[in-house]
Amino acid sequence: MKENKLFSANAVFVSDASDPTTIFKEVSDKLLTLDLVNDGFFNGINQREQQYPTGIDTSPIAKELPNIAVPHTEGEFVNTCLIVPVALKTPVSFKNMIAPDQSLPVKFLFMILNNNPEGQANILAQIMDFLRLSPVSKLQALFNLTETDKIYQLLSKNFSQK
Amino acid sequence: MSREVKFIAACGAGVNSSHQIKDAVEEEMRKRGYNVKVDAYMIKDVNEDLLSHYDGYLTIAKTDLSFKPKIPLIDAGAILYRIPAMAKPVYDNVEKVVKEINAK
After folding, report:
1. Is the Cβ pair A117, B42 closer than 8 Å?
2. How far is it, in rounded angstroms, from Cα A40 to Cα A32?
3. May I ask the CATH class of domain A13-154?
4. Predicted TM-score (pTM) above 0.95
């Protein structure tokens, strides 16, 4: 199987945290030990989410699909281009990216590490295409996985990289 | 060819949403026969002076700016879904601004 370079088996998470800041702290600490981000990353991503939220209402794609969020921050805090999946055991409230006065229950995060926005096919666009083009049943199964290796396998196999 | 019409797209980090909107709008306007350039910025860098160099501002969310922009604001967040029916009204609004600029 061809490895998808947008994912790393070490950088996949399952969290039972109940608020974005706690999730970001858990994930940031691990990403820092993997040298994928620098020590400004946690503050960067946490503040950015509060000022410019990243929740995405997936109902225009399919009504029965749980919502997602795509937290990210400036390239200066990041050492790589990677999607970091975070499955949430219970839905966590995020604000809607395109309508920040609305809150959305979110079940799965595609955290985007991007230190080179000009240099490669748009990661956010690839995430949206994955959601739009995958069967809803497959996405529902993904969003309910609670083992990081299964999440990694499913995403690496099914995420078509441009 | 008509003159280049310049838009700015801005998002929180300046790396993902704004670039997706840049790529999508430039490509669609090329298909429609217009010469459109979009520059991606972080919202915190957007000010009155910067906007004065552009013909329109593609926004992702209704963002509070500390000033009232003199150029047209186009709500472009729907483009992020990559669903043609959702993106079309945004492209139509962009085209309207481009036509007005070209008519000047």
Report:
1. no
2. 10
3. alpha beta
4. no
**B57: exposed, middle or buried (Cβ count in 10 Å: 0-12, 13-18, 19+):** buried
Chain B residues whose CB is inside 8 A of the A51 CB are 12
pLDDT tens digits for A60-98? Answer: 999 999 999 999 998 899 999 999 999 999 999 999 999
Q: Are B84 and B99 in contact (CB under 8 A)?
A: no
**Edge-to-edge order in the sheet of strand B73-75:** B36-42, B5-11, B56-59, B73-75
Which chain A residue's Cα is nearest to B22? A122
- Give pLDDT tens digits for B29-54: 999 999 999 999 998 899 999 999 99
- A73 has a chain B CB within 8 A of its CB: yes
Task: Give the fold, CATH level 3, of B5-103.
Answer: Rossmann fold (3.40.50)
> What residues does each domain of chain B span?
5-103
Locate B34 and state its tokens.
């217009």
CB contact under 8 A, A60 and B12: no
> Structure tokens of A96?
């809607």
